[in-house]
Amino acid sequence: MRIKIANGLVIDPANNIEAKQDIYISEGRIAAIGRQPEGFSLDETIDASGCHVIPGIVDLRARLREPGQENKGTIASESRAAAASGITTVCVPPDTTPVIDTTSVVELIHQRANEAGFAKIVTLGALTAGLKGEQLSEMALLKKFGNCVGVSNALEPVSNNLVMRRAMEYAASCDMTIFLHAEDKGLAAGGCAHEGAISTRLGLPGIPEAAETNAIARDLLLIEQTGVRAHFCHISSARAVQMIARAQYDGLPVTADVAAHYLHLTEMDIGFFNSNCHVRPPLRTQRDREALISALATDNLTAICSDHEPHDADAKLAPFSETEPGISALETLLPLALRLTDELSLSDVINRLTAQPAKILGIDAGTLSLGEAADICIYDPEASWIMDSSKMISAGKNSPFEGWELKGKVQHTLLNGKVVYSAK
Predict the structure, then answer these.
(1) What pLDDT, in 10s, does the model give residues 350-374?
(2) CATH number of 55-361: 2.30.40.10, 3.30.1360.180, 3.20.20.140, 3.50.50.60?
(3) How far is Cα 41 from Cα 356, in angstroms, rounded to an integer?
(4) What is the pTM of this model?
(5) Catalytic residue among 12, 219, 288, 307
(6) For this structure, is 299 an active site residue?
(7) How far is it between the farthest Cα atoms of the chain?
(8) Half-sphere exposure of 213 (CA within 13 A, CB side)
């Protein structure tokens, strides 16, 4: 199949391209950008007039709920939502049921993803067996036979310092990146909102900033000692950003990301107990939000992810503190990121959705380089739309952005040169 994507503005930060050019695809790969190769006969032309053509988005973290919680979503339903959102590669954390601590679970996920055919799925293996924080998982086997791109204990903090040290040493010996959720479980103490004036006024148990920063301090000391390559997930506070920036300045092999909703929402958005704003870590202050945006501009935060967590309706119907945390976020990732162009250039925004997360995962994705897989997102930057959760493709409708006017609408998504989504 030979395809031409014509008349679009091509934005490929990895190759410093931002120009109106045509893209030629052959046998699922990028054959040329700009001039048509000699003897290139077309099977299809996609008119991208007025649109931006970017590498397929690489989402660092999205829970697809399968296996184990198919009532909330399946690999088919959520990867279909990803395709409609311009996302071609999704990284899945290990907190499925059963946990991704054996290669058989990885094989199941890859099989279901291939059957669905909407997006590429990469997996993080469990850091400890069953995510219990007691015994190390078989990281070497997960990498060799499961092709896991890293290891993580998901949202279950490893409280035992010796276990964490040994885990980091093992991961370093396997040349695997460790993905960290920074939370001191004792300080978090079952809270559900940022500890401050809002949580006090609403009578909600608070999670102090120190729950994040204390965990980061411990992990940074162990990273320095073990030399492991580490990535901090969904950073939420200004102080945490300062600590990570200092570690990067000192030369530690550390990266970090932020989920899109932390860049647009604060503790104020909880309002009258809006359970769709119940997330983990919690939404913090306006000062924290501004610091996260500034850290993206300085590249101390290197990627923007969805942190997608679809839920069924019942999960958000209890009193705020008893609801399940998480946002169905695949379909708002691109438009929310595009709102940042007052603080970052458009190329920088796209970079943090494509090449940068691919680099963190250590995979070949996020670029339009010649010979690479033709994973491409074509979106209309001027298309405005109202967020209506009832029209979401994801099985989870739990979004705090209901009624928001968003700008930027995906028109086509290509996976390995095949159109897997078309708005027309």
Answers:
(1) 999 999 999 999 999 999 999 999 9
(2) 3.20.20.140
(3) 34
(4) 0.96
(5) 307
(6) no
(7) 70
(8) 12
